[in-house]
Amino acid sequence: MDRMLYVAMSGAKRVMDEQAVSAANMANVSTPGFRAQINAARAVPVVGEEATTRAFAVATTPGADFSHGPLTQTGRNLDVAVHGDGWLVVQTPDGGEAYTRVGNLQVGADGQLLTMGSRPVVGEGGALVVPPGSTVQIAANGAITARGAGDPLVGVAEVGRLKLVNPPTTDMVRGEDGLFRMREGLPPAEADAAVTVSSGVIEGSNVKPVDAMVAMISQARSFEMQMKSIQTADNNAQSANKLLAYS
Q: In what residue span(s) does the Flagellar basal body rod protein N-terminal domain sit (predicted)?
């Protein structure tokens, strides 16, 4: 059988995978701090006794677009956006660390600082807990102060400090939960004093809706072309069978 059939099949499969990535990016256009996923493929020639006229589509290592998203002023004390490069640290269910740019935080019923996804935010000294009912302020260096009702405006105690990190993006991988982690075998990232945040600001998704839509349209056309190639290979096989039957 002509290898053209398998070549077209591999191309169609890769296009379907790319469409899934584009659809996921489109679904997260309004997700704060989201980083667009990148999924690429490369052509690998089919090696055999014949001339190299066929090439398979093979997936390459998926990555992420680490460009910054737009900033929106919210005026909410618990909304923070990281300046430039850097990450907030959250605790994973297994007790490890993960990294995110999602800065719309909240205070849980027990006073623990959480993301909107209910993931505990990690401080330089461990878990961050503020007195329930207090007014929380987050400074540029990540220092968190909490002032209770009736407390003076001066001399407010610091209850913790956000752990802000900035590991090389090449050392990070995205998990199935959308959070980034250090690659297997690497230690957790150390706090970086050079990373700062702004309070009352939230960073949006870096997905560009128009680009994502154009990519989906292009992928749909590419899938149609692969299907046409499969149909052509099938027609060629049927014609060959007829010629053999007549001989």
A: 5-35
